[in-house]
């Protein structure tokens, strides 16, 4: 165990201000999301849609709280889980789930038309980690996302896996700001409206959004789509965009001031579904209210012959600026090739299910042909391994077997006490360690 813990300390240096960020290693515009810090530790013990011990019960509670899973498996929802105005300050910590983790789905229509499994609406301070979200509704049902962040602030999605939406797999809507979406996989949006992500939809104020170290795989377009007010800070950093069909990064400027956006060290890779000629960054001159400011640096493009993937569409170069419109909120920017390998090995919810394993394999190695396809209907959800949760007799959310390493005392509910070293709380340090353990294929006894 000492070897594993030393690997944690080496991977994420903790500083004196680690407690103020979402979790050790959090970056981007959403890094100050507080989630459930300092609040209750609520165990999720049931896979039912609603009732005692369910995720819905934890989400619909009030006050700062942390949803920790004591079960693994599929939660088949009857309607959306909504983190609303009264339900702010929550962390959903999927890395705590034993076995194969947690998957959310909706596979039946409901009268309220609430078909998006996870919604953060008019809320703030939300952290979601290591969660799979896969709606399974036919493509004839419109406006089905995997997750939506609407008119909310300080939200951080990390290590999530989303697929099979009939609209965007993940979307931000209205005056959403101070957002990070990171280390995630967004795959196989359903045609005819197959989209990876829409990061700017009907805002009325400037926004701050980071899209970092994600994989958009086999989505028709909106890889991503951006449309923002001037003075926004929008950054697309170290992502992999694979097998888009017709459009990659789309930049609209339908709001005063024009969209300011930075594309830094991303890897755009054409696949079997990609049309013969495409552009990685395209200004969409539709009802423009201002000129965009587009910064690009260190992006890599690859297409199998005879297909052509070019960086800028005709008419876009005139809006390229020599420096980012605002300072980048990500400190650890790496080269696009390194990002490609890191995304392949570390993105998505862990442990990966058969679907994520397949999609990552379809990407292929850098500079080599990939596979993959566009789909019109959802696939089957693979079985999820069941297992026992780690022992936590004092109910502080931390595994008793390693609690002492972070300064904790077994038998004492001391999650929010200062850690013995490195700054931050014992709970924060344990949860980041556990996230890294899950990526490495381990889980505490």
Please tell me about this protein's structure.
- With 445 residues, the protein is α/β, with parallel strands linked by helices.
- It has 2 domains: 1-25 and 390-445, no CATH class; 33-384, Pectate Lyase C-like (3 Solenoid).
- It has 5 helices and 26 strands.
- The chain has a 17-stranded parallel sheet that branches. Strands 4-7-9-11-14 form a 5-stranded parallel sheet, with no helix packed on it. The protein has a 4-stranded parallel sheet with strand order 17-20-23-26, with no helix packed on it.
- Helix 2 links the parallel strand 1 and strand 2.
- Helix 1 (2-11) packs across helix 5 (426-439).
- The longest helix has 14 residues, at 426-439.
- The chain is globular.
- The chain starts with a helix and ends in a 6-residue tail after the last helix.
- Residues 1-19 have low confidence and may be disordered.
Q: Spell out the CATH superfamily of the largest domain.
A: Single-stranded right-handed beta-helix, Pectin lyase-like
Low-confidence stretches: 1-19
CATH first level of the largest domain: which class? Mainly Beta
- Sheet with the most strands? 17 strands, parallel
* Integer average pLDDT: 95
Whole-number tally of structural domains? 2
Q: Provide the gyration radius in Å.
A: 21 Å
Strand content: 25-35%
How does CATH name the architecture of the largest domain? 3 Solenoid
Structural class: alpha/beta
Kindly, what is the distance between the CA atoms of the first and last residues, rounded to a whole number of angstroms?
11 Å
**CATH structural fold name of the largest domain:** Pectate Lyase C-like
The number of distinct β-strands equals 26
Helix content: 10-25%
Please report the number of helical segments.
Answer: 5
Shape: globular
């Amino acid at each position: 165990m000492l070897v594993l813990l030393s690997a944690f300390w080496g991977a994420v240096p903790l500083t004196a201000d680690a407690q103020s960020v979402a979790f050790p290693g959090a970056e981007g515009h959403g890094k100050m999301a507080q989630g459930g810090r300092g609040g209750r530790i609520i165990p999720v013990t049931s896979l039912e849609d609603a009732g005692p011990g369910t995720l819905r019960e934890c989400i619909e509670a009030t006050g700062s709280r942390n949803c920790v899973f004591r079960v693994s498996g599929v939660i088949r929802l009857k309607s959306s889980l909504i983190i609303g105005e009264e339900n702010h300050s929550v962390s959903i910590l999927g890395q705590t789930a034993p076995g194969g983790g947690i998957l959310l789905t909706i596979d039946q229509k409901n009268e309220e038309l609430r078909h998006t499994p996870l919604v953060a609406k008019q809320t703030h301070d939300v952290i979601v980690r290591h969660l799979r979200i896969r709606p399974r509704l036919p493509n004839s049902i419109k406006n089905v996302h995997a997750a939506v962040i609407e008119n909310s602030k300080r939200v951080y999605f990390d290590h999530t896996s989303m697929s099979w939406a009939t609209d965007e797999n993940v979307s931000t809507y209205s005056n959403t700001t101070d957002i990070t979406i990171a280390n995630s996989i967004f795959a196989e949006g359903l045609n005819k409206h197959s989209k990876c992500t829409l990061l700017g939809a009907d805002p009325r104020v400037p926004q701050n959004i980071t899209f970092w170290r994600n994989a958009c795989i086999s989505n028709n377009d909106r890889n991503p789509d951006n449309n923002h007010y001037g003075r926004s800070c929008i950054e697309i950093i170290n992502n992999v965009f694979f097998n888009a069909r017709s459009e990659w990064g789309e930049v609209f400027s339908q709001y005063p001031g024009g969209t300011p956006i930075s594309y830094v060290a991303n890897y755009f890779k054409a696949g079997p579904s990609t049309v013969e000629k495409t552009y990685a960054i395209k200004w969409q001159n539709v009802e423009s209210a201002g000129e965009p400011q587009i910064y690009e640096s260190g992006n890599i493009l690859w297409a199998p012959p005879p297909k052509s993937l070019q960086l800028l569409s005709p008419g876009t170069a005139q809006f390229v600026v020599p420096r980012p419109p605002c300072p980048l909120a990500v400190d650890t920017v790496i080269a696009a090739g390194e990002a490609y390998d890191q995304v392949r090995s570390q993105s998505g919810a862990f442990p990966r299910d058969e679907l994520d394993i397949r999609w990552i394999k379809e990407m292929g190695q850098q500079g080599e042909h990939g596979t993959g396809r566009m789909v019109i209907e959802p696939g089957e959800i693979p079985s999820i391994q069941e297992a026992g949760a780690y022992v936590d007799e004092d109910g502080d959310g931390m595994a008793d077997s390693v609690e002492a390493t972070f300064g904790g005392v077994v038998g004492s509910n001391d999650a929010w006490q200062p850690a013995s070293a490195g700054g931050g709380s014992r709970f924060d340090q344990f949860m980041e360690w556990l996230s890294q353990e899950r990526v490495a294929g381990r889980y505490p006894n």
